[in-house]
Design brief:
By secondary structure, this protein is mainly α. It has one domain. Helix content is 82%, strand content 3%. The chain contains five helices and two strands. The chain has a two-stranded antiparallel sheet with strand order 1-2. Strand 1 and strand 2 form a beta hairpin. Helix 1 packs antiparallel against helix 5, helix 3 packs antiparallel against helix 4 and helix 4 runs antiparallel to helix 5. The longest helix has 38 residues. The protein is elongated, with a radius of gyration of 19 Å. The two termini are 26 Å apart.
Amino acid sequence: MKAELFRMRIDALWLAVAISATASILLYVFTPGAAAELAAGQMEGEELTATTGWLFAAVVIFPLAMMVLTPFLRARAIRSVNLVAGVVYGIAVAFMVGMHLIAGVFNAHVLMGVVGVVFVLAIVAMCANEFHQVTLHEREKVRLAR
């Protein structure tokens, strides 16, 4: 895939991840009973702390940071950095979504988390595919040079 097209697709997917994370947080507020629970300083039975706020901020800021960083990286670094970031972020969000599903909770808030995980999987798949294509291309060059 052409480098610029690859960058644009990765950027678009990171933007979609950030939007789905933001939507998930906002949709939680519209879950019946959530507003009253938040007003009482609770969220899903847990006390709201500064750590909770930092976690929500990180879930949104991380994909935005990746979106801003990607255009400034070289082609090889784009593949590496986005692959590692996608795996780490994907595991973290999949864990959060999985905890809701294990608890038997499936609503719009959780659905947007699932959508975000799917977008992250697309990022990881694209980066892995690019690694594979580059490796094949490099092997062919070496074979032809012999």
